[in-house]
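Tokens as discussed.
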């Protein structure tokens, strides 16, 4: 067996409770699913005997020992890919992800991902997520979206961050703010888009606003920061978006739904390509050179999962986004 956890001495208040439930209460750094796996694999002893039933009812006077097996090596290989680290400690790392980088390996993107880079960068500082030496991904950014992303290095941090992201800042300290450049003039200077999102039955790479039962509830708040006029009309707007939920492609889907897709978004704004002719020549060139959706995760704030300290990070948009903004503003 592997490294031992502290010995747990049960008390009368735990009489009749399930083993996995008691362990989850006593060991908040571990998810209940992780503890159930440890029990099933024989790594939990009660009064000196291995116990493999997570549902065992306890008497309230037992002594429990857990011996953690060594974390398994990560399946994706580590790769020496440069990273822009905004913050790092023993529990987590905050990365300014460049546009063009996929977060997690998948079919067609087995190498060159953020996970590959983090496995190499973190090395021995990864203590494992659910028994595997890998970074804990609690949220993602699309491949062509730049900006801030936080990753856990161990089970405790992973569980604490996951809880905050599940809450989406409704009751906790989590905050995410994105900068987006969208087509046209929005109807109000600020507003809320509230519409369910589901995967398209026609194009599996695309999400759609839907009222179907399978759709997932989604809320996006926006605020207009600037408007860009050319030839007497507002051609595009710079907006800040704040998420109250975290659905796949949420900002892109919601803004396209209200008729203001992101500049450069070929998946959700293909019908707006003809509007490029109404931009100045300089702005049109900057958009062509950008070659991605104009979306940047500018701000990320959360509570440190171990210390409870409030953390807030802000990063400027990359050069391609800034250049497009500047060319639109000059028109």
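Sequence:
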């Amino acid at each position: 067996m592997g490294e031992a956890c502290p010995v747990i001495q049960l008390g009368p208040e735990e009489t009749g409770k399930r083993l996995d439930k008691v362990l989850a209460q006593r060991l908040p750094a571990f998810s209940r699913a992780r503890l159930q796996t440890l029990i099933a694999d024989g790594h939990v002893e009660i009064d000196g005997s291995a116990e493999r039933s997570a549902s065992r009812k306890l008497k309230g006077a037992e002594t429990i020992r857990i011996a953690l097996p060594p974390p398994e090596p990560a399946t994706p290989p580590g790769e020496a890919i440069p990273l822009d680290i905004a913050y790092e400690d023993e529990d987590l790392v905050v990365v300014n992800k460049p546009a063009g980088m996929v977060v997690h390996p998948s079919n067609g993107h087995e190498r060159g991902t953020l996970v590959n880079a983090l496995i190499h960068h973190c090395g021995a500082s990864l203590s494992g997520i659910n028994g595997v030496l890998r970074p804990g991904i609690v949220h993602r950014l699309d491949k062509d979206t730049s900006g801030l992303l936080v990753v856990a290095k161990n089970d405790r941090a992973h569980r604490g961050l996951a809880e905050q992201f599940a809450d989406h800042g409704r009751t906790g300290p989590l905050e995410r703010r994105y900068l987006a450049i969208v087509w046209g003039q929005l109807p109000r200077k600020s507003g809320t888009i509230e519409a369910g999102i589901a995967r398209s039955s026609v194009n599996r790479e695309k999400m759609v606003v839907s009222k179907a039962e399978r759709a997932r509830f989604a809320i996006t708040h926006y605020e207009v920061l600037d408007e860009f006029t050319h030839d007497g009309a507002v051609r595009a707007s710079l907006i800040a978006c704040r998420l109250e939920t975290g659905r796949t492609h949420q900002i892109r889907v919601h803004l396209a739904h209200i008729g203001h897709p992101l500049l450069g978004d070929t998946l959700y704004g293909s019908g707006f390509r003809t509007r490029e002719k109404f931009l100045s020549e300089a702005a049109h060139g900057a958009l062509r050179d950008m070659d991605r959706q104009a979306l940047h995760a500018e701000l990320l704030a959360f509570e440190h999962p171990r210390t409870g300290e409030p953390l807030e990070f802000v990063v400027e948009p990359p050069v391609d986004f800034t250049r497009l903004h500047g060319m639109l503003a000059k028109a």
